[in-house]
Write a structure and sequence with these properties.
Blueprint: E1 7-12, H1 17-27, E2 34-40, H2 47-54, E3 58-60, H3 69-82, E4 87-90, H4 99-104, E5 109-113, H5 125-132, E6 136-143, E7 153-160, H6 167-193
Parallel strand pairs: 1-2, 1-4, 2-3, 4-5
Antiparallel strand pairs: 5-6, 6-7
The protein binds glycinamide ribonucleotide.
Glycinamide ribonucleotide binds next to helix 1, strand 5 and helix 6.
Length: 194
């Protein structure tokens, strides 16, 4: 069943820098895969322009058009299937997924989160780390399960917090690491399941 896990579908809500890092890794043959489609939920998300520049189809599936999370997930599944996606990559996807999406792509949804999970799940992970006063932040790639930001961890990188860090400065250094570990995690994941 997991033989052809090389058609990626990216879910993104914002800038899309992780999507672009993954696209570059594919271009450099570090990942043996193809991004079939980018699905975004915010009409003005920058990821749309990045996808366009990279020649990747970008489809708006606006969560505001769906009464429930399950309805949104059904619309996402329809689009993923239309593009023959077999591995879903959440790259800055800011919607909580339901059992509907998880059942449709069982153990085939990956996510990146800007903390060293299991610390600081949910939104504003970087604010949480700074407010808590931890000295080491980071990022995590994991398999998506129903509970938010849980699921088997595939890859992590640590990022030391500096005395004068702000959310922006720390986020920038975390993203440098994200762009390294997400392509690596995807490549390893594909190696293991193929
Ligand atoms: C990334 O830093 C990712 O870790 C975070 O959103 C950012 C998206 O950046 N995701 C979450 O917070 C998920 N809970 P990008 O759009 O430039 O890839």
């Amino acid at each position: 069943m997991l033989k052809n896990l090389s058609h990626l579908g990216i879910l993104a809500s914002g800038s899309g820098s992780n999507m672009e890092a993954i696209a570059h890794a594919i271009g450099n043959q570090a990942i043996n895969a193809q991004i079939r489609v980018v699905i975004y939920n915010n009409p003005d998300a920058k990821v749309k322009e990045r996808a366009k520049r990279l020649g990747i189809p970008a489809i708006l599936v606006n969560h505001r058009d769906y009464p429930t999370r399950e309805d949104l997930d059904r619309a996402i599944i329809q689009t993923l299937n239309a593009y023959q996606v077999d591995l879903v990559i959440m790259a800055g996807w800011m919607r909580v997924v339901t059992q509907v999406l998880i059942d449709a792509f069982s153990d085939r949804i990956l996510n990146i989160h800007p903390s060293l999970l299991p610390s600081f799940r949910g939104t504003h992970a970087i604010d949480q780390a700074l407010n808590y006063g931890v000295k080491i932040a980071g990022c995590t790639v994991h398999i998506v399960s129903l509970e938010v930001d849980s699921g088997k961890i595939l890859e992590q990188a640590a990022v030391p917090i500096l005395a004068n860090d702000t959310v922006t400065s720390l986020q920038q250094r975390i993203q440098v690491q994200e762009h390294l570990i997400y392509p690596k995690a995807i490549a390893n994941f594909l190696d293991q399941v193929s």
